[in-house]
Amino acid sequence: MVKIAFNSALAQKALGKEVPAAVKDPEVASAPVGTEGSTGRCLLTLLGIAFILSGLIVGGACLYRYFTPKRMYHGAMEFRDVSSGAESQPYYLPRVEEEVEISDNIAVISVPPPRFRPGDPAYILHDFNRKLTAYLDLTLRTCFVIPLNTSVVLPPQDLIDLFSQLMSDSYRSYLVHEDLVVTERIDDVKPLGFYIRRLCDGKETYRMQRRASLPGGGIQKRSADECFTIHHFENKFVTETRICKA
Ligand SMILES: *[C@@H]1O[C@H](CO)[C@@H](O)[C@H](O)[C@H]1NC(C)=O
């Protein structure tokens, strides 16, 4: 067969005809040299491709699972401010909405500007590894850092459960006040860890304390211009965080 093909091609050449062998003699062309060898190579190539593809898929899945297991959740809570007295309650309850991105040890909460109510939009980052919370006030473009309060902030899995619950029905809750005071400026955000550094880099950053834990027993100075509030939740109640610069 091979010999015949070779011969006929030679014969064509000898006759001076520039017709390709494949066209001239399809039977010869469809019987390629070494059929078994090329089928084997083809199979090997296919196997190789399948192997590489499965490797990519498994590898991708692993990377996804272990390095970026982030999830976005959206939730809203209506709340009652018990401290302001029952009479002053409006007909409809105020509402806090937020979006949260939860990974293994980090929760980043995005608080939009509240409607019909004073309060600043903010990003709130809870770093469960470093046990720190950072508030980035988006109106002031300033960062405030305080130790993570684990009796207020639910751990990541519980947060996920809470937001899964909030997705299905609206939630009625109550308001808790939190009074924080700026204590000192932080010049180097590096020791605060990768995530807070990424959030606060290039912004003025301050350390805070609970007012009640200040020496002097937390005498409240009521100067509204130096204070601002952020309404948010990371538990089954809404927290009004009031941050004062003095
Ligand atoms: C955490 O927050 C609660 C409620 O605001 C407060 O009573 C408690 O003292 C705080 N704990 C710490 C360690 O700051």
Automatic annotation (TrEMBL):
- InterPro entries per the record? BRICHOS_dom, ITM2
Q: Name one GO molecular function term.
A: amyloid-beta binding
Bilayer topology annotation: Single-pass type II membrane protein
Bilayer-spanning residue ranges: 43-67
A biological process (GO) of this protein is:
negative regulation of amyloid precursor protein biosynthetic process
Q: Which Pfam families match?
A: BRICHOS (PF04089)
Domain BRICHOS: from-to ranges: 116-208
Residues in the signal sequence: none
Which keywords accompany this UniProt record? Cell membrane, Disulfide bond, Glycoprotein, Membrane, Signal-anchor, Transmembrane, Transmembrane helix
**Location(s) in or outside the cell:** Membrane
What's one GO-annotated cellular component? extracellular exosome
What's this protein's family per the entry? Belongs to the ITM2 family.
Q: Which PANTHER family match?
A: INTEGRAL MEMBRANE PROTEIN 2A, INTEGRAL TRANSMEMBRANE PROTEIN 2
This protein is called Integral membrane protein 2
Please give the organism.
Oreochromis aureus
